[in-house]
Amino acid sequence: MALGDWLRNRWLRWLGVAAFWTLVGLAFAGQLYLSRANVGAPVSWRFAIERALADWYVFALLSIPAFRLARRFHVERATWVRPLAFHVAAGAMFSLGWMALRAAVEQILSASAGQRIGFQEAFSHALVATFSFNVMVYWAVVAVAHAFDYYRKFTERELRAAELERRLSEARLQALQMQLNPHFLFNTLNAIASLMHFDVAAADRMIARLSELLRYTLESTDAQEVSLAQELDFLRRYIEIQQVRFGPRLEVREEIAPEVLAAQVPNLVLQPLVENAVAYGVAPHSRPGCIVLGARRTGDALQLEVRDNGDGLPAGRAFKEGVGLSNTRSRLQQLYGPAHRMELLPAAEGGLAVRITIPWRVKPDA
After folding, report:
1. I need a labelling partner for 284 at 20 to 30 A (CA). Which of 59, 86, 305, 352 fits?
2. DSSP characters for 80-106?
3. DSSP character for 318?
């Protein structure tokens, strides 16, 4: 159990405090027994344990108000004078209070052993022997109270920082997704506008498919990850729109292993990759274009791939990623950090292959 969980459990906290004072008392009982034996005035184990536990249980009782006072009058760097003066006085009162209680307890213990000791005698003996030590115990309690307060504030700051980081990460992901949706929408509307001039029926079918896609994106806006089966369901509707536009010029094949359909993938991760393949691998050519969707598990990772038979990477010059690819790369970085990989490779068909590798994750109820 973590220290923070232990501190938040009231009963465990009290049990731990009692165990601490008991262990200290038993340690001093052993010291008392051995020291008295060494000076030729041996005592029984019962005597040593009774007196030592009586000492430290009184300390335990007085440590409760001392702990609360220490937390209330915290010694801070900016305002340390008044709290320090208060604790100096409180330490003396703590010591006197311990001696008064310990003298009363000693009367009870001595009476049970058949040796009556007066309160004044017991108090005077404690005053001479333990006043400074009692003050030291008080300051130890104050130090522990300050340490717990610093630990509590530290953990609270850590929790706030983690919460802020989580919200910032979610905000970045939402911003990236909101950027992606209008990009996809504007491209599709532009295609519909072009189609309206020579094939109204086809444009009408594209509008119907587009309404289905928009409904899906509105319903899944908050989901950063979905199952691959859901992602493919959305992608097939998008591909239907493109097939209405390109007709027999666009062929799409799926090489999807059935066991990976339950795997979690970023929402709308494949659509910009297919859109990029259509824009650069199919649209510029009059010949038929082929796009292949692949998904398979490799160890503890899921590998997604979209490849086309277009012109591939430009030879002799740098390839500039568009909004779709750069946006996808940013989302993967936000979601998986260094645990992901996104590669642009030459495809076997002669075009471009975009390969994404992400950690294998499946929902427990999938």
Report:
1. 305
2. -HHHHHHHHHHHHHHHHHHHHHHHHHH
3. P
Does the pLDDT at position 106 exceed 90? no
Q: Using CA atoms of 45, 46, 51, 56 in order, give the dihedral in degrees to the nearest 10.
A: 80
59 strand-pairing partners: none
DSSP designation for 315: T
Give phi and psi for 362, each to the nearest 5: -135, 135
Among candidate residues 271, 274, 233, the one with its CA nearest the CA of residue 252 = 274
pLDDT digits (tens, 9 = 90+) for 112-141: 666 666 666 666 666 656 778 888 888 888
CA–CA gap between residue 146 and residue 67 (Å, rounded): 9
The length of the chain, given as a count of residues: 366
Q: 238 and 274 in contact (C-beta within 8 Å)? A: yes
CB 353 within 8 A of CB 345: yes
Burial 2-38 (b: 16+ CB within 10 A, else e): eeeeeeeeeeeeeeeeeeebeebbeebbeebbeeeee
What φ, ψ does residue 305 adopt, rounded to 5°? -145, 135
Q: Which residues pair with 225 in a beta bridge?
A: 266
